[in-house]
Amino acid sequence: MGLKTIQKYIRIYGVLLKYSIIQSTTYRANFFWEQLIELGYQTGLVVFFYALFGHITEIAGWSYYEVLFLAGVNIVYGGLLWGMVFVFGLTRLPEDIKNGNVDIALLKPLNPLFNLTLSKPYFTSLSSPLIGLGIMYYAVLKIGRAIPIQNILFGIIIFCCGLIIAYSIAVMSSSLSFRFINSTAFQQVGERVINMYTRNPHSVYRGGLRIILFFILPLVFVSSIPSSTVLRGVEFEYVFLGVGLAAIFLCAAILVWNRMIRYYSSASS
Question: What's this model's pTM, rounded to 2 decimal places?
């Protein structure tokens, strides 16, 4: 994929995002309540950690405000991934395959993977990262030490790699719906696995589970490793590992998707 192609899809996504904003804000009362619901989800996560630290002083060496920063990163990641990929994309994919609605997507002059997973952003979820950023800022203030700019830059790089890894896992899981048409569980499995192992510090995991979450399902690169990089300093082995795993998983996702989509039978078949 060349630079011009990437620029083309960035422009297309910008147009789609603009349309999503217009569509979401057309009914302002509905948009207001959706925002309150999103705020409720994020507040629940913060309250959970607040209650937890009422009984303990740290989790695997992470203080309350470090875990709070991690929660903020997790909220940013969740808002981006769910808003860009799941709500109107992968969540609906099994039903679209079963009903033959994928035909329309395949006829458009766009990459099918982009069209079926990224072309319908959900603006309400995309606004929740602002809450996450606010929590991160508050946590840093409470920690009370300066954060070097290189920590932030490399933290963002690893975070982007984590997003790519999580997206790739979700695509590979959901693409199995092309092969097993009557099953709607594959998308749910990918969603729950991603959600389950991104909220905790990576130092919590030991033994075989640690190997799995670093190499087989490397979800620690979504929020835990970026948080540790920003707050505790850059460990370049994590940077190189994150970039390498993101490239491997994205290539694997494209290969699995292209293979699975061959099983699709159009509604006219």
Answer: 0.85
